[in-house]
Amino acid sequence: MNTFFLIGAAFALFFAVLLSGKKEKRLPDLVLSSWFLVIMLHLLACFTFSEKAYLEYPHLLGIDDSFPFLYGPFIFIYAVTLIARKPIFRKSYLLHFIPFVISNLVYLPFFLADGENKVELYFTRKLEILPLRENVLITFKLLSGPVYVTWVWLLLRKHCKNIQHYFSYTEEIDLKWLKRLTFWFGVFLMVVLTSFFAEQVIFPINSDFVINIAFSVFVIAFGYYGFKQGAIFTEVTRQDDYFVHEELSNANQQNEEEIATVKYEKSGLKEDDANKYLEMLLEYMEEEESYLNSELTIEDVANALDIPRHGLTQVINQKLGKNFYQFVNEYRVEESKRRIMDPQNQLLTLLAIGYDSGFNSKSSFNTIFKSFTNLTPSQFKKMNEGASLVDI
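RESULT FIELD:
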């Protein structure tokens, strides 16, 4: 069964090479690639330990004990750079690796010990620092993972709300796959905690074996989705604008209007200009029917109207009490309702009508339609069978 370690290491190396070889690789790809290299080294170290290679090469003992301190920081930095408008590696990210450095410094006396005595020192815990490893470092390792998983989960929740101020769709940019894998990473950590607890308290099992088998499976899933993920933001905009929306997205529609009023007090946009922008926007949406473009962004609309994007955002937030996503999809829902009731479309499927109305998937069509009407498209059609367009 030790071959699972080699399989996991091989997949980690494969994805690391694949990510670093992408034509349009970005900082998140490099972060993920680096993490996979760390995982590969860890799994190889686990393999050598399970094969008792330390009997011939005692200096291999303990080299991987600090690796778990790297997993949380890597998944956090990957998530942060993936959702950032302009991904850059900040010096502050290095602070996340301090526990890893401290752990290795604590181990330093053991690493410098004579190779002939190292095996005995490691397994009998005669060296003074090894009890510290058991009592302190393992505790911090077990706590590190859940803390970072929770942190990343909250970050991704905010991201899902923030993108609604820039895009009229969320498919492929809402990072649901990362949320799912973060959840499963949390489950994996529960396996770690449970196996460690079982080994120490309940009954003796090989916790390292359970942990690394689970991790090998996780590597394959993460590598697959990580390679498929492309850039989210292609246009660089002001970071402060992004965080204004972060706060707005946490409120309901009524509060959003009130918060937007406060936030935009010092924006410099005059009332006359705001009303002019709103008139231009509504006229543009009605005449050009741009909402039929399933990948419409606020940048597209701002460029078409030749007005500042932040001014357009302010008008939608402040004057209409909505975000861009809600604003555009309301048009799409009304369009789909008209098309459903049009006798000329009776031979079309509801999904085809959804696509023609600007939605880009069945799930988004059903979810958004129901959020505005409290009915699914099929329920709406059944309730209005025999009605005319005038009745809507």
